[in-house]
Design goal:
By secondary structure, the chain is of the alpha/beta class. The protein has two domains: 6-118, Rossmann fold (3-Layer(aba) Sandwich), CATH 3.40.50.720; 119-305 and 329-346, Dihydrodipicolinate Reductase, domain 2, CATH 3.30.360.10. The protein has eleven helices and 14 strands. A hairpin with a 5-residue loop joins β12 (270-275) and β13. The two termini are 29 Å apart. It binds nicotinamide-adenine-dinucleotide (NAD). Nicotinamide-adenine-dinucleotide binds at residues 2-8, 28-31, 34, 51, 66-69, 71, 89-90, 116, 118, 172.
């Protein structure tokens, strides 16, 4: 585990503990106080502050990189060069160019490479993918995503600086929704995007001040899919009244020629479905979609909006055991980032922008 912060603790280490094929052997983080705490939290004895030590270790097969965005590229390239399989957090890089370089390096080294796009693993998202593939919604015509969180306006650390994070809400939140939209409806070809900054975030929680943020607090896009479908996305972490115990508000819908269907993060074991002339009805996600295929995780345990995040490790380890690319791969990570970068270009230039994602 490289990076021992919030997402490692919340998503990845519980995922490792669910998977009998995986063993957490070492943890890397420059924060020695945190490393000491993780020995107790995670039941791991081997720690280091240098990621190269993990890359060089012969008894480590695979790494999960959950560090600030600006470190993803150097850590991934070092681990891939040493033959490690890599799951890396999103956004893969600080730009499409970085993520494309990471994809090519992993592909050419013939290691497994996965981007941690969490929401693909929500049961309702799996079921929507099935309904679409089965033709039950008809021809998908339209996609809509809204993701609002009500987070504090105090400093967000590395996340609020372009040179460390790449972008704000767009790379942090909206990029997930770009990814699952492309998973469901295929590649996005062109976008008209907009971003805005709402708060300087100069107040540090616990006291003191810092340099003002230089990234977006709100990101939005209208997009055209290669299929001819259209989509609209909007996200922000500074929307008052959308706290909802930290889960915020999330809604994503597909409107097809036969039916419309809806995913909601706060109710991930149900979808809403409606046909022409009907009102949306709640439909439970069938049991075969509640966990990753063959995973031993018990879907009746834990908070539904949290526990599907433990399935990422199952997919990563399965891909290693089965010798195939994980889903989503670095290619998917780079593809989503190409769309996000087109949003930034569109906002800067005030026009529609074609998505440029040359990845071969
Ligand atoms: N997939 C998701 O749903 C999701 C959710 C939250 C965060 N994330 C992503 O996960 C990553 C980490 O986010 P977080 O919220 O855990 O951040 P965090 O700041 O809580 O943790 C990051 C950790 O990485 C450590 N670190 C910094 N440089 C390092 C280095 N060179 N080597 C090893 N460790 C290093 C830091 O000391 C810190 O402990 C980010 O890329 C973020 O975008 C993804």
């Amino acid at each position: 585990m490289i990076g021992a912060g919030a997402v490692a603790d919340y998503h990845h280490v519980p995922g490792i503990h669910v998977d009998p094929r995986a063993e957490l052997v070492a943890v890397c983080d420059p924060n020695e106080v945190l490393l000491e705490q993780r020995i107790g939290d995670w039941g791991v004895s081997r720690t280091t502050t240098e990621f190269q030590e993990i890359a060089d270790a012969d008894d480590i097969d695979a790494v999960i990189i959950a560090t600030p965005n600006f470190t993803h590229r150097p850590i991934t390239l070092a681990c891939v060069a040493a033959g490690k399989h890599v799951m890396c957090e999103k956004p893969l890089g600080l730009s499409f160019e970085e993520s494309a370089e990471m994809y090519r390096a992993a592909r050419d080294a013939d290691v497994r490479h996965m981007t941690a796009f969490t929401y693909r693993f929500a049961p309702s998202m799996r079921y929507l993918r099935y309904l679409l593939a089965d033709g039950q919604l008809g021809v998908p015509r339209h996609f809509r995503s809204q993701r609002f969180l009500d987070l504090p306006e105090t400093s967000w650390g590395w996340r609020q600086y372009k040179h460390l994070a790449g972008a704000g809400d767009l790379y942090d939140m909206t990029i997930h929704r770009i990814d699952f939209a492309q998973d469901l409806l295929g590649p996005i070809d062109s976008v008209c995007g907009a971003i805005a900054q709402f708060a300087p975030r100069t107040e540090v929680p616990g006291g003191g001040t810092c340099d003002p943020s230089d990234v977006d607090d709100w990101s939005a896009l209208v997009g055209r899919f290669e299929s001819g479908a259209v989509g609209i996305w909007e996200g922000s972490t500074l929307m008052k009244g959308h706290h909802n115990d930290g889960y915020g508000f999330e809604w994503a819908e597909i409107n097809g020629s036969e039916k419309s269907a809806v995913y909601q993060l706060t109710d991930p074991n149900n979808i809403l479905v409606g046909g022409h002339g009907e009102s949306m009805q709640k439909v439970p996600v069938p049991s075969e979609f509640l966990v990753a295929p063959d995973s031993p995780r018990d879907p009746s345990q834990g908070v539904p909006s949290d526990v599907f995040r433990h399935d990422l490790v199952w997919e990563f380890v399965s891909s290693i055991v089965e010798g195939r690319d994980p889903v989503p791969s670095f290619r998917d990570g780079a593809s989503a980032q190409a769309v996000a970068d087109a949003v930034l270009a569109s906002d800067a230039e005030g026009r529609w922008v074609d998505v440029s994602r040359a990845l071969d």
